[in-house]
Amino acid sequence: MTLDIKKITIPSHPGIYLMKDVDSKIIYIGKAKNLKNRVRSYFLKNQNYKTQKLVEKISEIEFVLTDNESEAFLLESNMIKQYRPMFNIELKDQQRYTYLRITDEHYPRLLVARRTRSGKFLGDGKVFGPFTSGSSKLLSIGSLRKTFKIRICKRLPKKACLEYHLGNCEAPCEFAHAQTDYKKHVAALEAILRGKDLGAFTKNLEQEMSLASKSLQFERAQEIKDTLQRLGSLKTRQKMESATGSDEEYFGIVSSDQTIHIMTFKKINGVIRDSNKYSFDLIGDNTFTNFLYQYYTTNQIPPFIITNQIPEDHVLLEQMFAKTAGFPVRIISPKSGKRREMLDLIMRNIALVQSSGAEPGLVELKERLALPKIPKIIECFDISNHGTSYAVGSMSRFVNGRPDKSGYRKFKIKTIRGQDDFAMINEIVKRRYFRLDNESAQMPDLILVDGGRGQLGAAMSALESMAIRIPCASLAKENEEVFLPSQKEPVIIPRQNQSLKILQYARDEAHRFGVAYNRSLRMPKSKFS
After folding, report:
1. What confidence tier does 444 reach under pLDDT thresholds 50, 70, 90?
2. All structural domains of the chain
3. What residues have CB less than 8 Å from 166, skipping those under 6 apart?
4. How far apart are CA 82 and CA 59, in angstroms?
């Protein structure tokens, strides 16, 4: 039975997707700049035969978010090496991106570097990369070498060779000035490969490409264009892989409803190799400390354990792990830098897992309104006026994006005279949540008010007077703008988006319910009643 893709919440972010069969075995891993667009494309009609066979076997799809497409590319490649899914192409060297190596010779060369399956590099010298835009041969033997006058000869000749006469090398083998300048050229090259001073170098290459094109040297122009494209990958910061780095493991921890959710990223030789998810209930001695201790009874202990929460007794844990591993072990909770960025990424992935199965429009609402959790319960308030004599309040209640009509409420305005919508909103919001608070009843995840910033302020004032904290928003009907307490400018959600349609539906239901109640109060009573 083919998976119903419409029932899956798919994020519109860069990342990788892991397609699994009925036995939860990974059968395909892919990357995407926009996961939603890419994954849904598999389920369109008129696919080729092999894609149809893949789709037929899909029972579950798991997502791992990244911060950009470059990270998704690297993580996809590493995961393919780890799991070797049956529908993925397996390259002979299992490497779909390359590195550059500056040798440690007296007059260094620039070569393509290779790394083993374990992540260790072959050959000596300094390694730079990864380059995620395909093969980097043109970088190693093309514009970079020519620009920085880097030699390509395996053995240093006694006299200047053809490369010198072509202007590609200054011949340190023969000339003293070239020997002096060679170190400067290598230092400048290293700076470029580290992503420094790219602006001026890129500008020079663009000018050279333009001149080559005007001189009809199209092959040279194309070579420079390829180099510029590959240099672009140096500008994109990524955390999934680096040329250098110690073994370390990352743990993201989130507590929700007396349950701990944990996600891990394992980094070996500077490469993210694997990711796993765990959860346990907060019962008895179930703590993160105990989890770590049990985890490393069956997993290899790294020198660095990176977490968003330092566990209790972490000093004792470090001592025990060091004794078992035979080297110092540190448990760290970084506040900034690439390690912190990695933890933030893990936390986003945990949030994605927790939102699995939720109404996609509600997931989008959480993101667009920066809510602390998915608004599964929304309560919306409206005021219905008819002249100065009849004014009522109404409330609709939505659960999982659908009306919960048994939860609708109507209010006779008791303390306000005249047409003061702000004061009326304040009254009914206060009455509603004063009662829920006294009864210790379930509070909504989001309070929505029909109106603009004034109505929102009235609702917030009512909550603050009772020291109740619930996320609030208002929906202004004229332009369908969403106002938030913490933002000066309204949030504009495209009208076709499901998230806005949920808010509109809740607002329209509250309005309909209020109008009906107001009309019933104004109808003359029957003489037989």
Report:
1. very high
2. 5-83 (3.40.1440.10), 98-235 (no CATH), 248-354 (3.30.420.340), 364-522 (3.30.420.340)
3. none
4. 21
Which phi-psi region, left, alpha or beta, contains residue 129 (left: φ > 0; alpha: ψ -120 to 50)?
left
Average pLDDT, the chain: 82
Check residue 185 and report its DSSP letter.
H
CA distances for 527 relative to 9, 390, 510, 521, 524, angstroms: 56, 22, 31, 15, 9
Each residue of 64-88: pLDDT tens digit? 888 887 778 778 877 877 788 888 7
User: Residue 258 burial (CB < 10 Å; 0-12/13-18/19+)?
Assistant: exposed
d(CA 245, CA 238): 13
pLDDT band per the 50, 70, 90 thresholds, residue 457:
very high
Sign of CA dihedral 513, 518, 523, 524: positive
Q: pLDDT of 175-225, one tens digit each?
A: 988 988 898 888 888 887 776 666 777 777 788 888 888 888 887 787 777
Identify which of 510, 502, 504, 256 has the alpha carbon closest to the alpha carbon of residue 360: 502
The pLDDT assigned to 234 comes to 54
* Of the candidate ranges 192-196, 383-387, 392-396, the one whose mean pLDDT is the lowest: 192-196
Model confidence over 307-351: pLDDT tens digits?
999 988 889 889 989 988 888 999 999 988 888 888 888 888 887
Nearest in space to 240 (alpha carbons), one of 142, 341, 384: 341
> CA angle 513-517-521, nearest 5°?
170
pLDDT band at 483 (very low <50, low <70, confident <90, very high): very high
The model scores a pTM over 0.70: no
On the question of pLDDT at 155 being above 50, the answer is yes
Average of pLDDT values for 390-412? 92
Residue with tokens 């008819």: 386
117 Cβ neighbours under 8 A, 6+ residues apart: 81, 94
Dist. CA 219–CA 44, nearest whole Å: 40
**For residue 490, how far is the Cα from the chain centroid?**
24
Q: How far apart are CA 364 and CA 302, in angstroms?
A: 37
* Neighbouring-strand partners of residue 274: 266
Q: What's the pLDDT score for residue 286? A: 72
Are 460 and 453 in contact by the 8 Å Cβ rule? The answer is no
For the chain, the residue count is 529
Residue 41's H or E segment, with its range, is: helix 35-41
Q: Is 365 left (phi over 0), alpha (psi -120 to 50) or beta?
A: alpha
- In sequence order, what are the beta bridge partners of 247? none
**Alpha helices, H only, 401-468:** 421-439, 453-465
Report the C-alpha dihedral over residues 114, 117, 119, 120, rounded to 10 degrees.
-60
Q: What is the rounded CA–CA span in Å between residue 433 and residue 103?
A: 70
- Least Cα distance to 369 among 460, 505, 487 occurs for 487
